[in-house]
Specification:
With about 210 residues, this protein is mainly alpha-helical. The protein has eight helices and four strands, in the order ααββαββααααα.
Length: about 210
């Protein structure tokens, strides 16, 4: 899981909700373009082009607006911007294992959840060089629950994380890396590029550098 710093919702979304009166109330089903597309683009920019859960690169036509707290259980948060994120996989497809938002679906245990907007959400997890994600503390029930709920340790994501880590932390580098080297890597992967995006799995690389410094 990666941390998301929420900003302001797009003006068109605010204006659309502000039209509510005695005869009309905004609803998720009633949210159409251009307001819905403005919302999607705002979330895409806010997240630096990466999935709110696994951190993979989001494809323009293969992502969806995700309600962290499900619509059915939290109707008052259906249009709350702080509850909306962008998750990978636009639709469930045969042959593609469910993960992130589609795996979570309507499952939600308030007592076990770790939200992407929590300041320390990334600190709950650790990564191996082979791409495995594990709770940083083996007794952290929340981390274990979220890993299973979002299916963050499936083979597909393990391979992708391992590839991202392997491009930075090869054996020769690890043999002579200093704390300063690791800190520079962590800082580099916490910064956006000129397009405002992060590298895929940037939080994994940054977290792995932190682990090596601990």
């Amino acid at each position: 899981m990666r941390r998301i710093v929420k900003g302001k919702p797009p003006a068109s979304f605010i204006e659309w909700k502000g039209k509510a009166d005695a005869s009309w109330q905004p609803s998720w089903d009633g949210l159409q373009n251009p307001e819905k597309e403005d919302l999607r683009q705002a979330l895409l920019r806010e997240q630096g082009g990466l999935c709110c859960y696994c951190g993979c690169e989001l494809m323009e036509n293969d992502c969806h607006i995700e309600h962290f707290r499900p619509q059915a259980a939290y109707p008052d948060l259906v249009l709350a911007y702080e509850n909306l994120h962008l998750s990978c996989l636009g639709d469930a497809r045969p042959g593609v294992p469910l993960h992130c938002g589609h795996a979570k679906a309507d499952h939600f245990d308030e007592n076990k959840m770790i939200s992407p907007i929590e300041d320390d959400c990334e600190k709950h997890f650790a990564y191996t060089w082979t791409g495995e994600i594990v709770p940083r503390d083996k007794n952290d029930e929340k981390a274990d629950y979220m890993r299973e709920l979002l299916q963050l340790d499936i083979d597909l994501l393990r391979r992708q994380r391992a590839e991202a880590l392997g491009r930075v932390f090869d054996a020769d580098f690890l043999a002579g890396a200093t704390a300063d080297d690791l800190q520079k890597i962590r800082q580099a992967f916490c910064q956006r590029n000129d397009s405002g995006n992060f590298p895929p799995f940037a939080h994994v690389v940054a977290r792995f550098a932190e682990q090596l410094m601990e």
